[in-house]
Amino acid sequence: MLDASRLEYVDPVGIALLFDLGHRRRGEGASVVYQALSPNLAALLNRYDAAELALPVAYRRHVGLFEHLGRSVAKHVRYLDDLLGFLHLCARSVIRTLTRSTPLIWTDLFDVATEAGAHAVPIVLLTGFLMGVIIAFEVGLVAQQFGAVILVVNGVGVTMLRELGPLMTAIVLAGRTGAAFAAQLGTQKVNEELNAISTFGLDPIEYLVLPRLLAAFFVVPLLAILADVVGLLGGALVMASAFNVSYLQFYSQLLKAVTPGDLGLGLLKATVFGLTIAAIGCHRGLQTGAGAASVGLSATGAVVSSIVMIIVIDGLFAVVTS
After folding, report:
1. Angle of CA points 211, 217, 219, to nearest 5°
2. Is 299 within the bounds of a domain?
3. Helix, strand, or coil here: 3?
């Protein structure tokens, strides 16, 4: 028996509690009786049918390997479709900027280029130098067995200019700059700054994304050149100290091994990689949901997506240029 003589007000949670007490399953002969319950509350309790409010039991279906694979592929296809639509908007923004009298805000472009380029020089130099040292040493040990140590210079030159120079630079920037772009734009979206920019009549893509795309377009090839130079220096140092190949011999063999086309291909790759990193980072940032955790997820997604796309694009370059 439930004495409700002093019950004057009940909120929705209290109504749900009284309803649950009255309709819960009990043993035979057991029941709940409401004593002195006001007519209006009694009307609320008798208004609903317990059978209609019962929730169906949700059974968790086992998802197989192929279904997981299919869902993952469909998810990535949807993401690529969204990314292509975002790139289309960016291209339209570039065309509007070039065809109208209002110039680009160059101060923003220089600030982004300084952050993404100048501040990344030390880590790019270190990575490029170590890549040259590792390639020269590992390949030199094998080539020494066949008396073809001088041909290691060919491998170091072609590999650094065509592949590892732009590739390692892009991977470093994907973890550094791509995540920064996603976190910056994601934080601005969480703080409603993007809505404020739109309220002022400004295009967020033109105001925030375009400077980052152009900065990556100009900065990444320059960083790739630095990585190439220090990588070749690292290879020359190893060849001179471990395999008795003088710096003059290294330089002479390098001129025979590489062509301007190798350097041009590497710079083209670096340019495409830079645009890919900036576009994915900005796109992930603009897709950020609510809350601080979403900013971290956007930054992580930007790094992962950028690295995967860089490797895919590099593979396409290898197939096309082979």
Report:
1. 95
2. yes
3. strand
